[in-house]
Amino acid sequence: MSYVSDFGASTFDEFYRGTSRRLVRYAYGLTGDLRDAQDLAQEAYVRAWQRWSKLATYDNAEAWLRLVVTRQATDRWRSRAARARRAPQTGLPPQVDDTTLDVLALMSAMCRLPIDQRRAVAMHYLLDMPIADIAAETGVAVGTVKSWLSRGRAALAESLSPTASTTGGHDV
């Protein structure tokens, strides 16, 4: 998808309008937190704006955005993991409905996936990207993406199964 108009001039506004919802959805799939997802997307667009004259010529500038978001998310996880080791856990907010708990459980399970699996799951299921496109964007074979998706689904199923919540993920 090219963002170069018929007049030869690219418009960042068109690019932003055409990609922003998908990018936030992708970032949310990686982080499990809407505010973080919005922050990551905003930072990616700031970087895109700064490089727009070059980025507008890319065959898939949206893939560049996803790469920026993935790298930013990885940096945040590392930073938060270090802080979490130093701070006590506070638990859930006082009044959380069942739907919120389900979303929290899913996003928590997603965040435990290795980054390659999480990225593939987010691209395939949240962005409806075909496996071949994911393989091309990530620079791996189609079979590797299929493996990531298979392992990611299996890990999510295990994490979200009723037995996982009562036995810590292992059958007794």
Can you give me a brief rundown of this structure?
With 172 residues, the protein is mainly α.
What percentage of the residues does DSSP assign to strands (E)?
under 5%
Shape: globular
The residue-averaged pLDDT reads 81
What's the CATH class of the largest domain, please? Mainly Alpha
CA-based gyration radius: 18 Å
Number of separate structural domains = 2
The secondary structure category is mainly alpha
Uncertain stretches of 5 or more adjacent residues: 1-9, 166-172
Description:
With 172 residues, the chain is mostly helical. It folds into 2 domains: 1-90, Rna Polymerase Sigma Factor, Chain: A (Orthogonal Bundle), CATH 1.10.1740; 96-172, Arc Repressor Mutant, subunit A (Orthogonal Bundle). It has 9 helices and no strands. Helix 1 (12-31) crosses helix 6 and helix 6 packs across helix 8 (142-160). The longest helix is centred in the middle third of the chain and has 26 residues, at 61-86. The chain is globular and about 50 Å long. It starts with 11 loop residues before the first helix and ends in a 5-residue tail after the last helix.
